[in-house]
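Issue 218. Parser rejects a valid record. Input:
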Amino acid sequence: MRDLLLGYGVFATYYVIVINTLYFTIMLFSFKKIFSIVKNSKFSRYKALSGSEYVPSISILVPAYNEELTIIENVSSLLALDYPKYEVIVINDGSKDDTVNILVNEFGLKPSQRVARNILETEAIRAVYHNPKYPNLYLIDKNNGGKADSLNAGINLSNHPLIASIDADSLLEKDALIRIVKVYMENPEETVAIGGNIRIANGCEIQDGIVKKVHLPDTILPMFQTVEYLKAFLGGRIGWSAINGLIIVSGAFGVFRKDYVIKAGGYRGGYPGEDMNIIIKLHKYMLENKLPYRIAYCPDAVCWTQAPDSLRILGSQRRRWGRGNLKNMLEYGIHMAFRPKYKIMGFLTIPYNIIFETLNPYFRFTGFLALIGYVLTDLTNWHVLLLFSLLNILYGILLGVGALLLEEIGFRRYPRIRDIFKMLFFIVIMFLGYQQLGVVWRFLGHIEFFRNNNTWGTMTRTSFNKDKKTTA
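Output the parser choked on:
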């Protein structure tokens, strides 16, 4: 029994080494790419593009469910974007709060004769609202059907060839849209989707839907998520996009070619994970039809979002992510893995996601338990457990520092020296409980999936300008 426990513990140790080595490899691609991103950003004429007639028009889709505290700031920020031609379509997904009335009163919206096309199947639409004083703003009021259903309803109403999905608790920087669309314009024939960079708005000074001053969060959980997002978006997605292996474009901010989203079947409803699902479906459609394509990432197109500030809400979010990841891997991943026609997706992205993301909580949790069991059978072997823990922490710290270095090379959104030290501090201490909680939440998400729990879960919204909260 001791040998069995030790053997499995050693396997778990090598598993951690392999997964972190792969993380480092992807981060190296990020470092290789970051210098060209900086150079391109420095010499690009974004202001000239914002007034150009050659910039493609775009429909911004904003799914909203119980968003009464953030929706005005969100819409105000979208209406103030530096972009020549676009429309904002807010889709109220059967909210139980005052989301619709707040929008109607704030912008003087009235029932409109504009009718959505029946391209993608959705829940019934109650009404479409518009006010000629705000010619590029529309509000869809529909029966509840979930975020994916809302996005499909927005596509049906949209007029433009590009669509952008934006969360209702998020704020775009004024030049975010022109920056992300510039990436599209570099290769419009092949670019089918582009992800933006998501940053944590907690702690920032926000006025009229615009982030005026960037500050780190004052509370612990949003601070952990700040450094976590740096690792994921800068350390990971820059690298994955460099090899056309992105498996997800964040639902908080992404731009897509509408025609290919429709050809791929639109957003999938019924359970969470629609942001990963649409990207997998786009990869699958393009590869099966042997069409040249790329799914890109634009780290200097910034979207600021609210991070959960309680364990209950954060746990609900991470369990939902776990359910969505597992469902997508069962539905598409197993079918696509190791099949030559799916190229990078089939031989790298999907196997990586299955082995090192979906199965991660099982190997880490059971491996740690096996080592504890081995040590308990002979307390003189405590150094084995210590080595496993130190390897895990060391790798994680190095990856976090690498992501912070990418931030300093490319963007420097946190200019104060004390901000750097604060992030370094949280990079270290996140392995003293926070990372382990993430493993547990993902595991619990899998349990919820097998119990057919496909609910969105609860999310508390806080007004960007006030200290009021509401639960969605």
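Fixed in the parser; the record now loads. The mean pLDDT is 90.
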